[in-house]
Design goal:
Blueprint lengths: L1 H13 L10 E5 L4 E5 L4 E5 L6 E10 L4 E8 L7 E11 L6 E9 L5 E8 L8 H10 L3 E7 L4 H5 L6 E5 L2 E5 L4 E9 L2 E4 L3 E2 L6 H13 L2 E8 L2 E6 L7 E5 L9 E8 L5 E2 L8 E4 L3 E5 L4 E9 L2 E4 L3 E2 L9 H14 L2 E5 L2 E5 L5 E7 L3
Antiparallel strand pairs: 1-2, 1-8, 2-3, 3-4, 4-5, 5-6, 6-7, 7-8, 9-10, 9-17, 10-11, 11-12, 12-13, 12-14, 13-15, 15-16, 16-17, 18-19, 18-20, 18-27, 20-21, 21-22, 22-23, 22-24, 25-26, 26-27
């Protein structure tokens, strides 16, 4: 066992300086669910459940005295602190299965937070022929909303406070199981998708929700046959004659046409704070501008959008002065936060804006009509 573990760890660690085409080194952990994927000698992708995926560029060095390797990288295309990953040869339990992994990982996030987990070598799959690649394009990209699940009634699924969803994107599955967020790796071979063990958050919800979540997690595992037709995705176990899970493609998310009431904004001191009592902050996205209320004045800022990316120009506000304590300071901080946004996302109906370095700058929900 020790010989196997040492040999496997050497393979894992040597994956970092290997060519970008080599199998990826995947480090991961729970509470919260996170992963760091090394796809080449100088690139790493950080995935956290409550933030956009962040890309880093860096290099690794060896600490022979500690028998560790250290990879350090800076955010690609933006400012912010470094991501540092320490790798050590040792048996590691992921806490989610009986499997033991050969490398222990410690991750230092740019905000100083430390995460702990394990690493494995993602299986390298040969590129399928062109005829076999078409199904992957069909399953990947959309957010799929669960409509049928074996063992659960349609009424039970429709009655969930928040729908169960899944998204397949470039080898990474991200799902919301009704109560908890899930993430994991997958590979596609023809019309079959192979799912790795999923990691997730550990929240507790009412029994009906947990029952649906447990059934969903059990069904979304192993090797499943899939088919996509008429905006529907079906997944079935190899031995099944009928579908185990049925999804419908959700409409692409949009931020336009909604007045978003701000629940938190970045005050420029690495803290997301609530608006002052008695003030209202809003943002609305039109075809070419963001308009809204900044607590005292109204404002307008030019912007452009490309997918989930934003480019926002300097806001222009009316010139009224308000006497409330902290109101004008809040307005300056809020408008500065708006201008710094580069990435948007919708999470269960909530608007979430981030800077290029991954720091959250605003959260909002649709305003009551």
């Amino acid at each position: 066992m020790g010989t196997w573990r040492t040999a496997m760890a050497a393979v894992l660690l040597s994956a970092l300086p290997a060519a970008a085409a080599d199998p990826a080194l995947v480090c991961f952990g729970n509470e919260p669910s996170w992963s760091v994927v090394f796809e080449g000698p100088r690139s790493a992708r950080l995935v956290l459940p409550d933030q956009p995926t962040a890309e880093y560029q860096g290099t690794e060095t060896r600490l022979d005295v500690l028998r560790e390797r250290v990879w350090r990288g800076a955010p690609r295309g933006g400012t912010g602190g470094d991501l540092v990953v320490f790798l050590r040869d040792a048996d590691c339990s992921d806490g989610m299965s009986d499997q033991t992994h050969p490398v222990v990982a410690r991750v230092s996030l740019p905000n100083g937070r430390m995460l702990a987990g394990c690493c494995r070598l993602a299986a390298a799959a040969p590129a399928p022929p062109a005829a076999a690649r078409a199904p992957a394009a069909a399953i990947e990209g959309p957010v799929w909303r669960l409509t049928q699940l074996r063992g659960q009634t349609d009424k039970a699924l429709a009655g969930l406070p928040t729908p169960i969803t899944a998204r397949f994107d470039a080898g990474r599955l991200q799902a919301f199981a009704g109560c908890n967020q899930l993430t994991g790796a997958y590979t596609i071979d023809g019309d079959r998708v192979r799912l790795e063990a999923l990691a997730g958050t550990m929240m507790a919800c009412p029994p009906p929700v947990m029952a649906a979540e447990t059934a969903f997690k059990a069904a979304l595992s192993g090797v499943l046959r899939f088919a996509v037709a008429d905006g529907r995705l079906t997944l079935a176990a190899e031995s099944d004659t009928g579908p185990t899970l049925v999804f419908a493609a959700a409409p692409p998310p949009r931020i336009e046409g909604v007045t978003w009431e701000v629940t938190g904004y970045n005050n420029g001191r690495q803290a997301v704070v609530s608006p002052l009592v008695g003030t209202t902050l809003t943002v609305s996205f039109t075809d070419d501008a963001i308009v809204g209320r900044a607590g005292c004045n109204t404002f307008r800022a030019p912007y452009s959008r490309d997918g989930d990316r934003l480019t926002i120009g300097p806001p222009v506000a009316t010139r009224k002065m308000c006497a409330g304590k902290g109101v004008m300071e809040q307005e300056r901080e809020f408008l500065a936060a708006i201008e710094s946004a580069t990435v948007w996302a919708l999470d269960r109906g909530m608007l979430d804006l981030h800077r290029a370095d991954g720091e959250r700058i605003l959260t909002a929900h649709p305003a009551a009509r």
